[in-house]
């Protein structure tokens, strides 16, 4: 009779573990979908978004969709997102990240604020590969320029490891994230890849993108094609 409570407890733990795994996978897939939507918005609104020169120069793109869903200016907010980096053969498989802490310059009373971080040079890339770093501490960051072109302001080319943006209601704006910590989201990594995978292995292109991430990878590829076309045809207005 003593075995029955132990058996029931074991079944309870197992069922909860399976429920968490299923929920974690669904949450990760939804995050991929929302991140794809942010990428599409970059293409669709170049005049109000991230400059083409900046986007085409970025080594990595980090997206945290729906970071805030209303309220006042928040210090120490937390969000989860996706990172991908350029490799010799295209873009890397998606790596799952979390962002938390710091003092964030977010808008008041805004729903669905999306965060975009662009890693602009090798120093920023190495910080991202480390699986955990602090913005403003380990890696320098600044609010990114907005609009179709950024040629008038060249500081971002020389000084910025990371350019940061927020988006609300279709409009992008620079944002400061001093003190925020970016690190690997191990739960989502396991949910999508089925096991632990390091940032370095994923973002360096050594791991193939799982089938469940193909829609996101297509959105990343489309963003790259759009910025390349815009650079080749600067006077088209599209």
From TrEMBL:
InterPro entries, A to Z: SH3_domain_YSC84-like (IPR051702), Ysc84_actin-binding (IPR007461)
Domain called Ysc84 actin-binding: residue spans: 101-221
A Pfam entry, by short name: Ysc84
GO MF, one annotated term: phosphatidylinositol binding
Domain of life from the UniProt record: Bacteria
Entry protein name: Lipid-binding SYLF domain-containing protein
């Amino acid at each position: 009779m003593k075995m029955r409570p132990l058996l029931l407890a074991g079944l309870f733990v197992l069922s909860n573990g399976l429920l968490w795994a299923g929920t974690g996978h669904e949450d990760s897939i939804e995050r991929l979908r929302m991140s794809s939507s942010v990428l599409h918005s970059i293409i669709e609104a170049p005049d109000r978004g991230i400059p083409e020169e900046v986007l085409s120069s970025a080594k990595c793109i980090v997206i945290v969709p729906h970071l805030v869903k209303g309220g006042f200016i928040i210090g120490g907010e937390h969000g989860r997102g996706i990172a991908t980096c350029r490799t010799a053969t295209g873009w890397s498989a998606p790596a799952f990240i979390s962002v938390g802490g710091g003092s964030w310059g977010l808008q008041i009373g805004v729903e669905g604020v999306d965060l975009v971080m662009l890693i602009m040079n090798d120093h920023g890339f190495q910080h991202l590969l480390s699986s955990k770093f602090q913005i403003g501490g380990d890696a320098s960051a600044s609010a990114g320029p907005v609009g179709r072109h950024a040629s008038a302001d060249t500081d971002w080319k020389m000084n910025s490891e990371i350019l940061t943006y927020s988006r609300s209601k279709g409009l992008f704006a620079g944002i400061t994230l001093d003190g925020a910590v970016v690190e690997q989201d191990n739960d989502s990594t396991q949910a999508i890849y089925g096991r632990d995978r390091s940032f370095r292995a994923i973002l360096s292109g050594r791991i193939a993108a799982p089938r469940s991430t193909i829609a996101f990878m297509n959105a990343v590829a489309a963003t790259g094609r759009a910025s390349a076309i815009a650079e080749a045809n600067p006077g088209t207005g599209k």
